[in-house]
Amino acid sequence: MMKTYRGSLFARLASIVGVALFAMAPALAQKPGATVHGHVTNPAGQDFTPGDMKFTTDQSSSYKDAKFVAVAPIDGQGNYKATGITPGDYFVYVVQADKIVDRVELKVKAEDTDLTLNDDMSRAEYIKQMTPEQQKALEEYKKKNAAVTSANAVIAKLNATLKTVRADLTAAAPGKDDVSKDVAMMKEAVGAKPDEGLLWLTYGDTLLAQGRHLADADKKAGKSASTDDAVNQAYGDAVDAYKKAVALDSAVAKPNVGGLAADYNQLGNALTAQGKTQDAIAAFDSAAKTDPTKAGVYYKNAAAVLYNAGQMDAALDEANKAIAADPNQADAYFIKGQALVTKSAPDPKTNKLTAPEGCVEAYQKFLSLAPNDPKVPEVKQVLASLGATIDTSYKAPKKH
Q1: 122 and 45 in contact (C-beta within 8 Å)?
Q2: What total number of domains does the chain contain?
Q3: pTM score, whole prediction
């Protein structure tokens, strides 16, 4: 009896101690699992996107019945990242719009912390599984995509060229510097894409700028630019380039009126450089009619050309058109005042010089719009000679 009791008591104590010891033992730390990341490529060799990478260890179950331990979205560059992938053998499904696109296998070991799993669906094994129709469609797509990629590369290069050339032209303009490098660049550009009006417009700008550079050099050397073949060639080529731009930009289904008007305006500038004043005026007028929102600028440009050519009556007409289109065109008022002041005559009674109606008002408006213009001293001197009070706060009378 005693022996049995002692044995029973020992068993009970052992059981109690055992429970106590087990309860006091520290728990083992669980590993967070591995990070799995990679890139997914579609059958055409491009980034696969959008979609998901779905991880499961249910290798004996169908996709529909499988339990997924992780789902990692595929980003816009075809990349994904999954965390907390515990050790095991996985099927990783590539899914797009809940449709299985591919499946790859992955083994994660206990010691793994960072794994790369890429899926390249352009691999031969994947392509072989496609139907003949799918393979044919894929090849056609690759051909079209190659053409698009090539065209995009050309456009990217042309945009870079345009950016460089525009910066060069802006920097060269104040000193009429040499821009022959830019002429060569734009000649190559129009050769690469001859159906783009913007390229011909910019090509014309480089030719016009180079012609002005050469003409300025002739002037400094005491030579006549009008007999310089290089100058005439540059201006002639500029005119041709602008005409090409006009033709291309006019031919599109919905012309960009701002761009087409700029073509006409620059054509007018190039024709002016050639000394073809009337053709230039026609180009400026076309620009104004094409884009009425900027008609004031284009009519003002026409007025300036006529004024510089000494055609005062015609300059006055264009200046009035500019003012009617945009009452804030300062130079249009200056040209109007200059054109009218030439018609001044002495008053028979006072023998004082009297300007025609509207002359003084035009000068006053010019002063109010452009108080810091270099021509201001000249205008003030003219007004003083006319005995007019200088009022820089002048505002044109309202139209009735």
Answers
A1: yes
A2: 3
A3: 0.66
CA end-to-end span of the chain, whole Å?
133
Cis status, amide bond into 50, omega within 30 of 0: yes
Residue closest to 329 by CA, chosen among 370, 383, 361: 370
In a domain, 239, yes or no: yes
* 156 shares its domain with 192: yes
Residue 363 structural domain: 291-400
Residues β-bridged to residue 94: 53, 102
Digit-coded pLDDT (tens) for 32-68: 899 999 999 999 999 999 999 999 999 999 999 999 9
Q: What whole-number distance in Å separates Cα of residue 365 and Cα of residue 334?
A: 8
- In Å, what is the CA distance from 245 to each residue of 63, 157, 195, 325? 59, 20, 9, 26
For helices 330-341 and 359-369, angle between their N-to-C axes, nearest 10 degrees: 150
Supply the DSSP string of 11-47, one letter for each residue: HHHHHHHHHHHHHHSPPPPPP--EEEEEEEE-TTSSB
